Amino acid sequence: MRTPRSVTPSRRGVLAAGGAVGIGALLAACGGGRGSGGGNGGAAGGPWSFTDDRKQKVSLPHAPQRIVAFTGTAAALHDFGAADRIVGVFGPTKLKDGRPDPQAGDLDVDKVTVIGNAYNQFNVEKYAGLSPDLLVTNMYEPGALWFVPDDSKDKIGKLAPSVAITSSRVPLDHIVARYAQLATALGADPKAKKVTEAKARFEKAAEALRKAARAHPVKVLACSGSADLFYASNPGINADLMYFKSLGVDLIVPDHLDKGGYFESLSWENADKYKADVLLLDNRSATLQPKDLAAKPAWNKLPAVKAGQITPWSSEPRFSYAGAAPLLESLTKAIEGAGKVD
Questions:
Q1: Backbone angles phi, psi at 20, to 5 degrees
Q2: Which of the residues 118, 181, 269, 307 could staple to 29 if both were Cys, CB 3.0 to 4.6 A apart?
Q3: 258-278 pLDDT, tens digit each
Q4: Rounded to whole angstroms, how far apart are CA atoms 228 and 245?
């Protein structure tokens, strides 16, 4: 099962993801047509509804004007032009020095109320004080609302309806399409220049990665490091890795997955189990980075480390074209500059 990295040292805190609704509907939503795949109303001022990935339909007398969302979700909606309705966020929003957390993307974190900057910090009273119309978050396991604490989820659920978008077990591009669909249902313009330019960049980046993977057939391991364990992540369940693999990236598939299926936990003595040419290393602040890992002999012995073939992995992607394109570009650059290390 996937839990936030702040709770257990697994990928992105080893999230959780959920049941995906019709892939065809998600693909059709890439263009972001209003009302397609689950939402209607809103912009015209009439009744509003949206069916989320739990297949639960939210119906309101008018489009929600006061949305509280998981930080990464809010950032994605911002990229699609729906930021004006977001009044509060929860999840990694600000770093210790006050700068925006990477998950906040281009969201102006000073214009929203932060009701919890880390897992289990969701302030229910502060949430209620925002008079929310709607809560929106990711879903990594069926029915589990990302960063909504189990011990207060019932209180939270009584204050406003929620929308959950599945965030694993389907490829990245499908989830991006689903967020485009939600933003459009909220009144955002899918043909806005900002959105169409981001989509064009994403499509160009995807094709570049496809070509790089074909021209440079190196083995890539998506991984994460903690003090005691080295995690080999599964490209068969993580949305971004699923998409990279569909583009031809030779991602290593761990053969002894932990419960939940997101990764295999390895002792540092066994960190060399998989022979990778490139390490796609989890870059979240809660995980160990190369400067931290340098003190571990087992890390320094890895062939990819010796070759300097390590590239950052944003293991909690922002599900928008603007958020995903740089991830594709970064991996493309890493693959193009890598060689076999056997």
A1: -90, 140
A2: 181
A3: 988 999 999 999 999 999 999
A4: 28
CB atoms within 10 A of CB 144: 22
- Please count the other Cβ atoms lying within 10 Å of the Cβ belonging to residue 142: 15
Euclidean distance between CA atoms 115 and 152, whole angstroms: 13
Handedness of CA 59, 177, 189, 322 (dihedral sign): positive
What sign has the CA pseudo-torsion 212, 30, 142, 22? negative
Tokens linked to 136: 């929106």
C-alpha dihedral sign at 237, 240, 241, 246 = positive
CA atoms within 13 A on the CB side of 82: 29
Q: Which residues make Cβ contacts (< 8 Å) with residue 301, sequence separation at least 6?
A: 272
User: Could you tell me which residues come within 8 angstroms of residue 78 by beta carbon, excluding any fewer than 6 positions away?
Assistant: 86, 105, 106, 107
pLDDT given at position 285: 75
Strands 134-139, 162-166: parallel, antiparallel or unpaired by DSSP? parallel
Show the tokens assigned to 127.
Answer: 């949430």
Q: Which residues contact 96 (CB under 8 A, 6 or more apart)?
A: none
pLDDT band at 29 (very low <50, low <70, confident <90, very high): very low
Rounded Cα distance between 257 and 69, Å, is 31
What are 97-139's pLDDT values in tens digits?
Answer: 999 998 999 999 999 999 999 989 999 999 999 999 999 999 9
Mention every residue, 6+ apart, whose C-beta is less than 8 A from residue 290.
Answer: 281, 305, 310
